[in-house]
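Ticket #4471: structure output looks truncated?

Reporter: J.K.
Steps to reproduce: submitted the chain below (295 residues) through the standard prediction queue, then opened the result file.
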Amino acid sequence: MASEIKVDTISEKTSANGVTIDGVSLKDSKIATANSVDSDAYVDGSIDAVHLSANSVDSDAYVDGSIDTVHIDALQVTGAKLNTEVISAQTELAAEPADTDEFMVSDAGVLKRIDYSLIKGGGGFTKVHSITASSSADITFDSTYMTATYKTYLVIADGIKAADDGPELQMYLSVDDGSNYLGSISRVHLSCEDDDAGITAAGNDEGAGACIIGKSSQGNDSGESGGGTIWIYGSQDANVWINVNCQYVSWGSGMELTWENSSHGARSTTALNNIKLQMSAGNISSGTFTLYGAN
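Returned output as attached by the reporter:
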């Protein structure tokens, strides 16, 4: 048989003890028995900042993903909170940044962004492409690399070895990406050998089919090689003809050292979009040709 007590007030008998009901002690309008209130008994929304003691919530109690940008105040993430690999762990950009790529800088203590175009600097050269010869019939920089991006181009030839003994290094110019190569090349050529006291002017021409970079017969014995620079001017300017200036140093088949300086011109105002380098006979055994664009 159930029992029921109806009263308006239940007061403690002894002021120090409070009142106990079914094992739960009530004292001074509060529940005095530890661990006696289950979370299911909380009123929704009743646990707010006012009712939480300082340092009373451990991170293990957070719901995964609950700490988002909404719950982090501005300026609360400091440098000490960043992992040391915050940059190195990201995907690598393996090419020069685009002009609109952005960097973060501190402007007198204020974080700001800046486009690459404002910090990349002017002048100098940009490496366009490099090709290493390996028993190659020719080395060609086509319209993928010869574009209107640059008006002036520079080719650096390094460690060029010929397969045959005694060939010339030549360069051909094309305005239709190699379908045809320009003829009637004007040429002025100066050279000097280590066993010659004077400078020789030879091979001057107005109707050559190629730019003769190394006119002297280059050897192919061990150590005999050539190298130099090839400047190409006005190749993308519709108002001027194409001009080429070269310096080339090589070892001849008789172990003589030869210096050569040559200038070449093509009477064409069509944009140059292909250059081909090859020996007058045989392959290019080895060596590297690197194309640069002048900024």
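Triage note (M.O.): checked the attachment and the full token line is present. The two ends are 101 Å apart (CA to CA).
Status: closed, working as intended.
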